[in-house]
Amino acid sequence: MKLKLKLAIYNALSKALVLLAFGALMPFLVERVVYNHIDHRLKARTAKVLRIIEKGGLNDIVRESDCTFESYNILKEEFILIEPLSGMIDIKPTIIANEQWDIDGEKLNHRIIRQPFIYDNQIYSLQIGEGIDSLDKLKATITKVALWATILTVLISIFVDIGYVQLLLRPLNNIVENKLKGTKDPVHFNDAPVKTSTTEFKSLDESLTALMKRIKDAFLNEKEFITNVSHELQTPISILKSRFENMLMDDNLTDEVADKIEDSIRKLNRMSKVIRSLLMISRIDNEQFLRNESVNIKSLLEEIAEEMQERLGSKNLKLYVHHLDEFTFHKANKDLLYTLFNNIINNAIKYNVENGKIEIGSSFRNNKYVVEIKDSGVGIAKENIPYVFDRFKKFKKTTESSYGLGLAIVKTISDYHRINITVESEEHKGTVFSIEFPDEYHS
Amino acid sequence: MNVLIIEDERSLSHEIEIYLTKQGFHCDVAFTGSKASEMVAVNSYDFVLLDIGLPDTNGFEILKEAKNNNVDSAFIVLTARSETDDKIHGLDLGADDYLAKPFSLPELHARMQAILRRKHGLKVQTIDINGFVMDYQNRTLHYDGTPVVLTKKEFDLLHYLAMHKNRVLSRSQLTEHIWGDVMDDDYDSNYIDVHVKNLRKKLAAHSPIDWFETVRGIGYRLNIQ
User: Fold this and answer.
1) pLDDT value at residue B200
2) Region B75-95: what's the mean pLDDT?
């Protein structure tokens, strides 16, 4: 999931939570505020009434008969009631409460203040009430308005958040899209700094560029190293080889010495070939070979088979080239493919038995072109099959010194071309190499 | 024939010098690029053997310089660097041939001979091998007017031996000449023996070939008067 989306979801959820909490608390808050106001008003009125009584006396106000006073406004939303309290009633302090009053047959909710006072040795109770039925409506209205306002705010803020987050994360996106994706090797890394004012992104970008630069330097160093290794190793080999060859030209050499010199030359050649093979593997790994040719595999195999003919005589081998299907492999390097087949067939000759045979054939499996190279040679022990393509892997339980890099090169070339190679083998029966071409680059 | 060996590795230039002198060439040696440019400008050489990895100059610069000054020498580039680009670059600049180190001295000699034939169109196009007449221009072999049919490899083998007559060529030298780089790193020198066996059979059908000598343990030699 993208970071942008995650942040937006988090924002929306947290805001919805705030919204819910606010919505649930709103009615209580409104009620508290309104009651506060009413209570304040009721107290003020009580004080005012008491002042009037103190000034002008109670007699002017109350009715003669029962010494009470009642007054309602028209809508019965407010009333004042003064009544004497009979008997020995304790003077209770001011009480504010909600009560339902029956006024002229109408049941109405009121907030009431009760204030006892003494006048002319008589205890009276002053009650002032205010209707609160309208309060519920007010509460509902205020809650509704507040809710809508909050929803609107949340929605707006979510959109603003997404936009802002996107803007904020743009440098990160740039780093991911332009620098990391599609950078296959460090040499092609885009090291132009990403524009950002965010410290973390800046340091991420800088660290990444610094890291890539180090890898790139190492990569180029390695390339130069390879060239230098070649020079440093092949030059002394070349000197020794020339010296031995000059020594060999001396007619007075004994057979034994001459034999040793010739053997030394062969060892030097082997050394040189190993160095060359290692360099080749390393250069393929470093993608220093172009893959820009279209290779007709059928003709290539026929060409190699033709060249191999003359080498079959040493073991009296037979090479059969069965029917080969036409197949052109694009985006390939012909020299490398030549080496691939050459090394496999070479192995088939080397590890074959006297009067043995080698067969080359092709087929289509699951729409993929497969070349099979089969020999009747000594085969490979089961436990060694997984290691045949390893570099310098010594085989178990064999006398074979196995310094050959032929199959390691085969593996490197096939990986480079996305060719899939499998080996089946049975000891003393033979080996089959199946070379399966990818189906994306052919016609 | 004058040869200039431009090679900073003194032991190597020394060995080349010994070999080519024995083959009848007169050799000069330069260990640096500046010395080499000087010598190319002053003297006239039939061959310049040029190492690319010189300490002071890039070998290609000397090649360019010489070609600009219309120096009529044949250039053979020698390099121990792994870059195949070197080969292409060298040939593009007008080098006549290219040899990767380590090379075989008889191979160097054979390449020089090939350049001579190409450049100067030598009048003698045939070699007499004890009665067998080899025409290397048309790649044919005759004995007493009768053609002897050889495969390409057999012809190359006989030619290489004839070119170095009265000298032993070892199996590894022959293998290297015939197959070059294609062979595996632990190639079987028996391949050569098979070819020699077939070649001998074809030659012996026309005349005794006791001059085609097997030098035990090493290789083969043609004894030609």
Assistant:
1) 93
2) 77
- Residues of chain A with Cβ-Cβ distance to B217 below 8 Å are 255, 258-259, 262
**Is residue B181 pLDDT above 70, yes or no?**
no
Q: Which two tokens stand for residue B179?
A: 């197959």
Q: How many domains does chain A have?
A: 3
Percentage, residues of chain A above pLDDT 70 = 93
CB within 8 Å: A255 and B217: yes
Which tens digit of pLDDT belongs to each residue from A37-51?
888 988 898 888 888
Residue A138: pLDDT band (50, 70, 90) is confident
Structure tokens at A50: 């008491």
Domains of chain B, residue spans: 2-120, 126-222
Nearest CA in chain A to B214: A255
B218 to A343: CB separation less than 8 angstroms, yes or no:
no
Q: Which fold has domain B2-120?
A: Rossmann fold (3.40.50)
Residues A11 and A130 in one domain: yes
Indicate whether A62 pLDDT > 80. Answer: no
Among A21-35, A273-287, B42-56, B171-185, top mean pLDDT goes to B42-56
Final residue in a domain of this structure, among A285, A302, A323 = A285
Within-domain flag for A153:
no
Q: Are residues A345 and A370 in the same domain?
A: yes
Give the best residue of B8, B156, B172, B197 to mutate against chain A (max A CB count within 10 A): B172
A44 in the same domain as A12: yes
CB half-sphere exposure, A339, CA atoms < 13 A: 24
Q: Which domain holds residue A418?
A: 293-436
Domain end marker among A87, A112, A138: A138
Would A82 be classed as within a structural domain? yes
Same domain, A344 and A256: no
Cα distance from A323 to chain B (closest Cα, Å)?
26
Q: Name chain A contacts of B52, Cβ cutoff 8 Å.
A: none
Judge if A305 and A281 occupy the same domain.
no
ipTM at complex level:
0.88
Q: How far apart are CA A405 and CA A270, in angstroms?
A: 11
- Are residues A353 and A388 both part of a single domain? yes
Residue A441 lies in a domain: no
Q: How far apart are CA A212 and CA A209, in angstroms?
A: 5
Residues A277 and A361 in one domain: no
Which chain B residues have a beta carbon less than 8 Å from that of A269? 102, 172, 176
CATH architecture observed for domain B126-222: Orthogonal Bundle (1.10)
Q: Is residue A413 in some structural domain?
A: yes
> A226: which chain B residues are within 8 Å (Cβ-Cβ)?
82
